[in-house]
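User: Here's a chain of 349 residues. Predict its fold as tokens.
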Amino acid sequence: MRCLVCRKFNLHSHRSLCRSRLASRYRRMKQEHEDLVLKACGAKSLQIGAKIQTLWSGYGEILRVHLEGCDRSSVVVKHVMFPQNQKHPGGWNTDISHKRKVRSYQVESYWYQNYATNERCRVPICLAAKSFGDEQLIVLEDLDVAGFPVRKTYVNDAEIKACLSWIASFHALFLDVAPEGLWPIGTYWHLETRPEELEAVSDQKLKAAAAEIDSILNNCRFKTILHGDAKLANFCFSKDGLQVAAVDFQYVGGGCGMKDVIYFLGSCMDERECEKRVPGLLDHYFLELRKSLDMKTNFQDLEKEWRSMFAFAWTDFHRFLLGWMPGHHKINKYSKRLTQEVLNKLKQS
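Assistant: Prediction complete.
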């Protein structure tokens, strides 16, 4: 069946869109998956909507599911399917890589079911999570409906600060909280989980210093729970861009808050912007962190320690990139300058 637009204007691009819509319209979930969604939402029926994205390396997909007979018009379903043949875009199709991803989805499921945040660091409400052999479903509140319908690839100063405020509130909420059931050390580039990438690093001085840098970060006095993948793409914005919610908690775990901060800043600014804007944005993060913490915290000591960890956290991620994808655009003059500063400090100590 062809739609009126296709018939009238003979539009090939529109035909492709129509085919996609028809495919999702008549697509069915497995019965046990459908039953989980219906029960979690108290719905009478459902219809699979658009695919939001394919998960990294072909490990499943994220779908919007439309509901009838309940107070929710839609939910988002993260459907994890562990593949027989991995398709890593960087070629890292190894057993270590596979086990890390499997563990990451277990961690994310545990996070959504056992941890809660507040309105200052909004995340989607988890309605259900269940494993079905080599498949896993997480049923989440639809953030588009909840007031966060915008995704951005470019952000202005106010929008960057909105994300940093979210990160600061998140770090304050979980300061000194043990990451029970999560990664003991958060972030997807943590050294212990990336031995193959470390082996591939060609910078011998950085390679030799990697363990010491990792140890310095891990032995901070002040620790929190990290988002672990706090890039711009994982923030959902309100229409005015001043409120955000975050998704994707596969690498949530313990550690120094600067790891989330450096990763976010690097995800939305180039080297020139970093040189110019990082000092002021760091000030904003610490201002928001202070506002969110209670008076019992020795904030002066916390700020002093975490500011001193900024270059170490940036260098730690730089180490990962050099091994994982040496031609990555984030390997720039700003990153190299901070890395050299860290290596000089270690040499002097």
